[in-house]
Amino acid sequence: MNSFLLNNGNAVLSGQLKSKTSLMIEGESITAISAGAHSFSRIFDADDLTLISGFIDIHIHGAVGVDVNSADVDGLLAIAEFLAKNGVTGWVPTLVPDSDENYRRAINAIDGLMEIQSGRPVAQALGVHYEGVFANEQMCGALRPEFFKKFTGVEIAELPRLKNGVHMTTLAPEIDGGKELIGELVRQGWVVSIGHTKADTETLDEACDAGAKHLTHFYNAMTGLHHRDVGVVGWALTRNDVTFDIIADGVHVHPRMLEFACRSKTPDMVSLISDSVAPTGLGDGDYKIWGETVSVAGGKTRNERGSIAGSVITMHDAVKRMLSLGFSAVEVSKMASLNPAKLLGIQDSYGSIETGKRADLAAMDEAGNIRFVMIGGLVAVEA
Q1: Measured distance CA(285)–CA(373) in Å, rounded
Q2: Do residue 22 and residue 73 come from a single domain?
Q3: What does each of the 383 residues of the chain score in pLDDT, given as a tens digit?
Q4: How far apart are alpha carbons 285 and 298 in whole angstroms?
Q5: Is the dihedral angle over the CA atoms 206, 147, 103, 351 positive or is it negative?
Q6: 72 and 46 in one domain?
Q7: Short-list 340, 313, 294, 342, CA closest to 96
Q8: 28 Cβ contact partners less than 8 Å away, ≥ 6 residues apart
Q9: Of 122, 186, 310, 382, which is least packed with CB atoms within 10 Å of its CB?
């Protein structure tokens, strides 16, 4: 078995940044930290670099011209390769509302990717995220309400499922039968997130009691905070048992409000997401996505209805923004890796640098540039 030594870096370990730390990797796993003298197949000098667990993106629609809803296996693999270069070691392909036929085709493609990805230095698909199958049409954002479903009791069974992996969905709890829908999804092992919603606090409390304890892209596609109307935003900020994810692109959320939300909730309760769409990595221009033209200009997306249509950032961009706002490497590592892993229920193997866990790692220099990425013990980036 090949062995690898990441030597002499500043590593985020057990909630602290520890200097002069070495990680020993054998096969897919971290086998020792601050290892002594050993014979290694390869050594990477991580001096002056910050070693953190690889980023996990739980909400991503596409990149490099590929849209998850319409991608084949090769297209999904292209996204995974691009993500790896940007420090992402795990991702959850995210579907916008679509026809049942396209859902089936997309799930087959994700299954196909998951069958071939092991042993490749690419971001590993961890499951699927159905965004907005059951959403509030008044809060649709860039989603297509013509594909929203009503819940009558049979729709969960009709949703195509992967052979393996996490199943996550974002829904509005105020739809008819929303509480029953959440309860059934939770019983079936789904990760249920609240989003595209204008639910009142009573409905939100019921949803939380039923098992929906997370919110999707905080602030966006939900009612805001007012001193006489708590709104979905105020409800989330005042519930200690609720977490949320947030798009840290400076477009969906103003940087000051981004910092306010993450400081108020604390980095222990926040996950960063990209919510990136197919044009990510391609630059400005007009692109066909989800049956309409989406324009990208100066890092901002806009669809034909005038709505923001996802982002064109990577998790690496989100991490750099949070660092620029004064969050520490330890805090950012929680938000970009450990908290997403906890939400998905895979923290025993992913999300932090510990012996026995997967060797999914990223190393950044003082400027925040990615200098090294390892996925399952395989080197994806070495610069």
Answers
A1: 30
A2: no
A3: 678 999 999 999 999 999 999 999 999 999 999 865 566 889 999 999 999 999 999 999 999 999 999 999 999 999 999 999 999 999 999 999 999 999 999 999 999 999 999 999 999 999 999 999 999 888 888 788 888 989 998 999 999 999 999 999 999 999 999 999 999 999 999 999 999 999 999 999 999 999 999 999 999 999 999 999 999 999 999 999 999 999 999 999 999 999 999 999 999 999 999 999 999 999 999 999 988 999 999 999 999 888 899 999 999 999 999 999 999 999 999 999 999 999 999 999 999 999 999 999 999 999 999 999 999 999 999 98
A4: 10
A5: negative
A6: no
A7: 294
A8: 358, 359, 376, 377
A9: 382
Q: What is the CATH number of the domain that holds 17?
A: 2.30.40.10
For the chain, what is the domain count? 2
CA distance 98 to 114: 22
Do 269 and 373 sit in the same domain of this protein? Answer: no
Report, as residue numbers or ranges, the catalytic residues. 275
For residue 134, give the CATH number of its domain: 3.20.20.140
Q: For residues 55 and 88, is the Cβ–Cβ distance under 8 A?
A: yes
Q: Are residues 91 and 17 in the same domain?
A: no
Residue 360 lies in a domain: no
- Taking alpha carbons only, the member of 286, 205, 283, 193 closest to residue 244 is 193
Q: Residue 347 domain-assigned?
A: yes
Q: Which of 311, 276, 294, 291 is nearest to 146 (CA)?
A: 291
